[in-house]
UniProtKB/TrEMBL annotation:
Purpose of the protein: Controls the rotational direction of flagella during chemotaxis.
Protein topology in the membrane: Single-pass membrane protein
A cellular component annotation (GO) from this entry: bacterial-type flagellum basal body
Subcellular localization(s) per the UniProt record: Cell membrane
Record InterPro entries: FliL
Name of the protein in question: Flagellar protein FliL
One BP annotation, GO: chemotaxis
Keyword field: Cell membrane, Chemotaxis, Flagellar rotation, Membrane, Transmembrane, Transmembrane helix
Taxonomic path: Bacteria, Bacillati, Bacillota, Bacilli, Bacillales
UniProt family annotation: Belongs to the FliL family.
Annotated transmembrane regions: 7-30
């Protein structure tokens, strides 16, 4: 009786080992969604794109402020208040951006509502937020693009 069951027991143990190994590999390489992994992705994105050097007066002409964006974060116990300064690449892009201000604010709120408080802590967290916003806002613009986003004010408070 034991000789008949031995191949089945070995096969079951091998299958369990393979499933466990595959689950570990999947978790480690694919599903790992930690903020540290996001930081590496941001560094790669930001390294690839250098913002062109623009004189200060021209930079001010092409900058659009967005003040006092207030919303809850993904953890509803936290409220965030942010102000931004968006630098665009040309005058037409600035005019279009100003017309799209409600969409810009809605995009910012949507991104913030999907963000946990610990994801925005520190410079890497803020860089991640800026990168997400820049990617989504550049998809909205037809006449140009956002070159840089500065967080000019940030308050995260537990309610």
């Amino acid at each position: 009786m034991f000789k008949k069951m031995l191949p089945w027991i070995i096969m079951i143990l091998v299958v369990i080992t393979l499933i466990t190994g595959a689950a570990f590999v999947l978790w480690y390489f694919v599903i790992d969604d930690s903020p540290a992994g996001a930081g590496n992705q941001i560094e790669q994105t930001l390294e690839g794109e250098e913002a062109p050097q623009i004189p200060a007066d021209k930079r001010m002409e092409l900058t659009v402020p967005l003040d006092n964006v207030v919303t809850n974060l993904a953890d509803l116990d936290y409220v965030i208040k942010l102000s931004f300064a968006f630098q665009l690449d040309n005058e037409k892009a600035k005019q279009e951006f100003e017309l799209l201000e409600p969409s810009v604010k809605a995009t910012a709120i949507r991104i913030l509502r999907d963000t946990m408080p610990e994801e925005i802590q520190g410079s890497q967290g803020q860089d991640a937020l800026v990168t997400k916003m820049m990617n989504q806002l550049n998809a909205l613009l037809l006449e140009g693009k956002v070159l840089q986003i500065e967080i000019t004010d940030i308050i995260v408070q537990q309610s």
